[in-house]
Amino acid sequence: MIIREFLAWTQNASAGRRAEATTALARAYLYGDLSADEAWEAKTALLSLLDDPSPLVRRALAETCAASARTPRPLVVALSCDVPEVARLVLARSPVLTDADLVDAAALGDEATRAVIAARHHLSHAVSGALAEIGDLDTLVVLAGNPTAKITAGRMLRMIERRGDEARLREALLRRPDLPPEVRYAIGLAVAEALSLFVTDRGWLGTERCDRMRREAGERVALEACDQSGAAGVARLVTHLRTTRQLTAGLILRAVLSGRTDFVQAALADLSGQDHVGIARAMREPRSFAELHRKAGLPDALLPAMQAALSARQAAGGPTGLRGAGLSRRMIESAIDACTDLPAPEMHAVVALLTRYEAEAARDEAREVARAVAAEAMAREAVRRDAEATDAAWRAALESQRRTAFAEPENAVEVVAPAPIETADPVVFEAAQGEPAEAEVPNPVGAILDALPEQILAWYRTEPKEEDPEVQAAMQEVLDGLGADLLDQFRASRDTADAGSDEVIRIAA
């Protein structure tokens, strides 16, 4: 009944009305309480909508059914093969699609479709591997930035091999928390390769020198990739280096001179087939280390340098280099001293290599000292600025307090100057006038104090009288805020004025 009425109604309805009806029918099928017969009819009606000529109807069907696990599989598969704007809605989040469906859709779809698949939650290894193999840059960046996508180390290496020259892909991979050390090493090599090509294209350095610098940078990256990787991660990196023919004698010598015993043990164990316990014991005994050196297939010319470096490290009682992959100048100097007097012609190349290592170690130490000095200078500058800011704030607060204490009260009583003494006796008048007074100098302190209430000045001129305790407390607070110097100056000026008044009265009498 439902399918007949629905199909009959869709014959004359517009595309917009059909899309609304499709959404309502799909919701009723997925979330409604339909009987078995009604559910079958609704399912049949939804499948018939796949033939609707309007993409608007099929899009409404995909939007409603994409996230539901109850959607019929034939419906989802058909929608995933529809036009891209309809298929992407289902490919992005439908839990009904299998890995085979997603791989097939990635192979047949365009780049935007592959990017939508790469952003799916909990992407499996199979789908990630297919995308890593056929996806373009945008797809690879989305895949690398998907934290829930399961990507093997081999597929990450394949992504770097294909588009490792792109900074966007390298940055997306470096943000992954599960990045294996061999992938980190490959990213470092890709950066070194990009910088080398840039320098050679500019003509700043020759090709041979750039190749050597790139090789030495790769060695540093290999040792830095071992940080926080654990024994298993270091072993994986060593296996990768050996498989790709990048586990060289120079890298092992650098590891020895850098104090990276974990890498040295893993490399010697991989090359010689011995266990780590035996290798650790041999590294403490020069004669046993010579036998281990021979089994690992390392050049004989490096044996004196390695033995001298290990002896220097053992004498120091611990790591003697900088943090990370920094070389130790003490160990390098010991190795140079052990190789300088040897007559073998091949020792000249070893000494030249050790000399370059010594220069590199000196530059690393200089960088560390420069960073420490700069950090100390910045800390001192920060302290100085904080002190200046604190002093400025204190001065501003003090100035604000002074202005508040000396501000004229709203109910201030105006103090009227006393009238001049009137007398007819010229002798008395002249005596009262005294000597010609000098030009009066403005007294800012007196002007401020004259503006105070008369009752406070009267209290200050005479002996304190018994008054209300609250009034005394208020006046004392005001006087305390004036400062000792102001009060002393006011006392002196008032004593002089009182003495002059007494003299005038005595003469007049």
Characterization of this structure:
It is a single chain. The protein is an all-alpha fold and 509 residues long. It is built from 27 helices and no strands. The longest helix has 59 residues, at 347-405. The radius of gyration is 46 Å and the shape is flat.
Question: Any idea what the shape is?
Answer: flat
- Based on helices, strands and strand pairing, what is the structural class? mainly alpha
Give a short account of the largest sheet.
Answer: none
Question: Strand portion, in percent?
Answer: under 5%
**Terminal Cα separation, in Å?**
133 Å
Total number of beta strands: 0
Helix content: over 70%
Mean pLDDT: 82
SSE string: HHHHHHHHHHHHHHHHHHHHHHHHHHH
Distinctive features:
509 residues; mainly alpha
In short:
The chain is mainly alpha-helical and 509 residues long. Helix content is 71%, strand content 0%. The chain is built from 27 helices and no strands.
Topology:
Blueprint: H1 2-10, H2 15-31, H3 36-48, H4 55-65, H5 73-80, H6 84-93, H7 99-108, H8 111-118, H9 125-134, H10 137-144, H11 153-163, H12 167-174, H13 181-202, H14 207-224, H15 230-243, H16 249-257, H17 261-272, H18 276-282, H19 286-295, H20 303-316, H21 329-340, H22 347-405, H23 426-433, H24 444-450, H25 454-461, H26 469-480, H27 484-508
